[in-house]
Specification:
This protein has about 725 residues and is mostly beta strands. It has a domain of about 200 residues: Immunoglobulin-like (Sandwich), CATH 2.60.40. The chain is about 5% helix and about 50% strand. It has a 24-stranded antiparallel beta barrel. Strands 1, 2, 3, 4, 5, 6, 7, 8, 9, 10, 11, 12, 13 and 14 form a 14-stranded mixed beta sheet that branches. A hairpin with a 4-residue loop joins strand 30 and strand 31. The chain is globular, with a radius of gyration of 27 Å. The N terminus is likely disordered.
Length: about 725
């Protein structure tokens, strides 16, 4: 009997080792042609890795359609040869663009944790057509997806070929496109695959189904035959020139401009990079999605400007999204005029330093200078963020940051209180080795020219994700006097608690249903310094069925109780009578939604919602239809309808949001996207049409046409422009 625990322990260790995937990567001096063929002599002597595990539909068996790969390296490049076995040739692909869409599509993705910290990684994706996609990952992808950044682009090669029972992909990644420690002997690594023909997702490193595929907690290892030396990274110059012709019809002004600017990338060793920008231009950036706002709060729109999105986990991952974000980069380059209107505030220069000091410590420094605009009451501001982040334990880290927004000189039209704003912060992020436990705690303190006592913000969130259960508890506090001019806060002076629970059921021997999910989310908000200290609560209960073909069905109940501290009109009707303040409003509604499989050529999502709304009722009808002629043409139509009925004298209103989108990808280099948006809540009809030609690596020619109309009484033009922008990437 005494030997039994020892035997069991040995079995346990062995079982863990069985799932530990490793491959030795040999050094080669043979030439490798990137053509999707395994015939190069170098591949004959390379080790082979296989035995992929299913992630879906189950995670307990090996993949039905297996994948195998080989890896080699020379002094400058890392090479992969991937053979993906297929059932037939009915692949799913949405377009030919870089960073192509992968939801329910066929693809192979490679992840490199080059610092072996289980916190940050590089991801490369491709498919049977040899398309390219690359992005940066961080552990924070588990907290709402903010740790997945697709704006990062690398220069690498890939080609794929179809064979009778498989497709073969050949990849070459230069070492100078990656960051790592000199002398590295091994990297944490994983490769995973989506096969829509067998409805199977598989991973080289076995990953539990309840965890996100590609989670950095679950990876194998590549071992290099000899240590990696320092990679010679070039200095990159990216100049641009942008000519635009436009007209502001509201002010009857013709706007013709010729702008130019420069981005510079300066590497420091293998692990640190400096980015500089002078007179940046973001005219090629996709327009924001128009949204209907029925809440009391400002909408949070995502950052799309590349200068701010690179290494975004290091610069933006602080606090709690929506409630306590001390740094929100969209505050830079946008300001308010004397009348409170949102206007563009041009960026003059920007600098960003980011990277690894050693295998544990990361550093980030961001500094942006914006232009003064005295006519609109906008001062010149220096905007700075400095942060240090240090890894502890298996995957956790703590960080310090300092944020400073400060006028560069004294302005008569600026109140003393607004001359500067500073925020200091400390945060601890928990991520367990097995990925089950995640959490965050933070404390922030702000400073302004005037003394403020209640200038602190703090919060805590802890979650555990197991096979059947996901449970989390969060809380946050923001003082009345706390301010972060470069942050996003929906309110100040509040305490909020947010418990959440999810229960998952995995049916056995079911060839249609993946799982059932029951979940409940609650939010309780208190305003301790208000006369009415309880602001409200929200309770959301839902039941969802996820099918193996990746369609979904969901029903939901929403119970709300809100206290209005200020008069508020949810319809935002001009001249309408707002709902009176100092009152509680309790209301309940119900939702039902269905989403068809993403892989279908015609896909749709439809949802209905009906119930009480403040002191009236609301009926909502939200639909999105998508159709594609793969891989060259995609179109979608979004139609949202909200019918709000409030008792007299408060306004009732039918609100529409209609948004068709058309996308042509003629080949891997040329694409054309047209985006039309209309909503009667803002009485605006807008069109953005963008033609992009990538004529050289990371070098583009854009033609962008914008057109906006006011639709209050009739269709009147508001603004119209056409831009021709040229960027060219030069390595020196």
């Amino acid at each position: 009997m005494k030997k039994l625990p020892i035997i069991l322990a040995l079995i346990f260790v062995h079982s863990n080792l069985a799932f530990s995937q490793e491959i030795n990567v040999k050094f080669t001096e043979e030439k490798i042609n990137i053509d999707g063929s395994p015939d190069d002599l170098a591949w004959k002597n390379a080790d082979v890795a296989s035995e992929f595990w299913q992630w879906r539909p189950t995670d307990s068996v090996k993949a039905v359609k297996q994948t195998e790969f080989k890896a080699l390296f020379d002094s400058e490049n890392l090479y992969f040869l991937i053979k993906a076995y297929t059932k037939e040739k009915k692949f799913t692909v949405y377009n030919l663009k870089r960073d192509f869409e992968t939801a329910s599509a066929d693809y192979v993705q490679l992840i490199f944790d080059t610092f072996n910290d289980a916190s940050n990684a590089f991801k490369f994706q491709t498919n049977h057509l040899g398309l390219k996609g690359d992005m940066l990952l961080s552990t924070i992808m588990s907290f709402g997806g903010r740790g997945m950044n697709s704006s990062w682009d690398a220069i690498w090669d890939v080609e794929s070929k179809l064979y009778e029972d498989s497709y073969i992909t050949e990849i070459k990644i230069p070492f100078n496109q990656l960051y790592f420690i000199n002398g590295s002997k091994s990297w944490r690594f994983n490769i995973y695959r989506s096969d829509t023909q067998s409805l199977e997702h598989s991973s080289w490193a076995k990953t539990p189904q309840e965890q996100r595929i590609g989670d950095l907690a679950f990876m194998g290892k590549i071992n290099f035959e000899k240590p990696l030396g320092e990679s010679k990274k070039p200095i990159s110059l990216i100049p641009y020139i942008n000519g635009s012709i436009g007209k502001n019809f509201t002010q009857n002004k013709t706007l013709n401009n010729l702008d130019y600017g420069l981005d510079v990338k300066i590497p420091i060793g293998n692990s640190i990079n400096i980015d500089l920008t002078v007179n940046p231009d973001f005219s090629q950036v996709e327009v924001d999605d128009q949204l209907v706002n029925l809440t009391q709060f400002e909408l949070r729109l995502p950052e799309r400007r590349q200068f701010f999105t690179q290494n975004s986990d290091l610069f933006t991952d602080f606090g709690q999204e929506r409630d306590a974000e001390p740094f929100f980069s969209r505050r830079i380059g946008i300001s308010k005029d004397f009348e409170g209107n949102t206007v563009e505030n041009r960026i003059i220069t920007g600098m960003r330093l980011s990277g690894k000091i050693n295998d544990k410590l990361r550093i980030g420094l961001l500094n942006v200078l914006t232009e003064e605009d005295k006519a609109n009451g906008i001062p010149q501001n220096n905007n700075t963020l400095f942060t240090l982040r240090n890894k502890v334990f298996a995957r956790s880290n703590y960080s310090f940051f300092f944020i400073n927004r400060e006028n560069t000189k004294d302005y008569d039209f600026i109140e003393n209180q607004k001359k500067y704003n500073r925020v200091f912060g400390f945060e601890y992020n928990l991520a367990s080795k097995n990925g089950q436990w995640k959490g965050r705690t933070f404390i922030h303190k702000s400073f302004t020219p005037e003394k403020n006592d209640k200038n602190t913000s703090f919060g805590l969130r802890l979650s555990k994700n197991s096979r059947k259960h996901y449970i989390s508890m969060g809380g946050s506090y923001v003082g009345d006097d706390f301010r972060s001019d470069l942050g996003y806060y929906r309110r100040y002076g509040f305490i909020k608690f947010t418990p959440f629970y999810q229960f998952r059921i995995y049916p056995k021997n079911n060839d249609k249903i993946l799982n059932y999910e029951l979940q409940h989310y609650a939010a309780y908000v208190f305003r301790p310094n208000k006369e009415e200290k309880f602001e409200g609560r929200l309770n959301i209960s839902s039941f969802e069925i996820k099918y193996l073909n990746q369609s979904t069905f969901e029903i939901k109940q929403n119970i709300r109780r809100d206290y209005l501290y200020y008069d508020f009109d949810p319809t935002r009707t001009d001249g309408g009578s707002p709902l009176p303040a100092n009152n509680f409003y309790s209301y309940t509604d119900y939702e039902i939604a269905f989403s068809s499989p993403d892989k279908n050529l015609f896909k749709f999502r439809t949802g209905l919602q009906y119930g009480d709304f403040f002191n009236g009722t609301k009926f909502s009808f939200k639909n999105e239809f998508k159709f594609r002629v793969q891989p060259y043409f995609n179109t979608s139509l979004r139609v949202d309808y909200d019918s709000i009925e409030l008792p007299n004298p408060y306004p009732s209103r039918d609100i529409w949001l209609i948004s068709p989108k058309f996308q042509f990808t003629f080949n891997k280099e040329i694409s054309w996207t047209t985006y039309i948006q209309y909503t009667n809540q803002s009485d605006n009809l807008g069109m953005n049409s963008r033609l992009q030609w990538r004529f050289a690596p990371l070098s583009d020619l854009y033609i962008v046409y914008n057109d906006n109309y006011i639709t209050t009484d009739s269709l009147e033009p508001q603004f119209r422009s056409i831009n021709l922008k040229f960027t060219y990437w030069i390595n020196i």
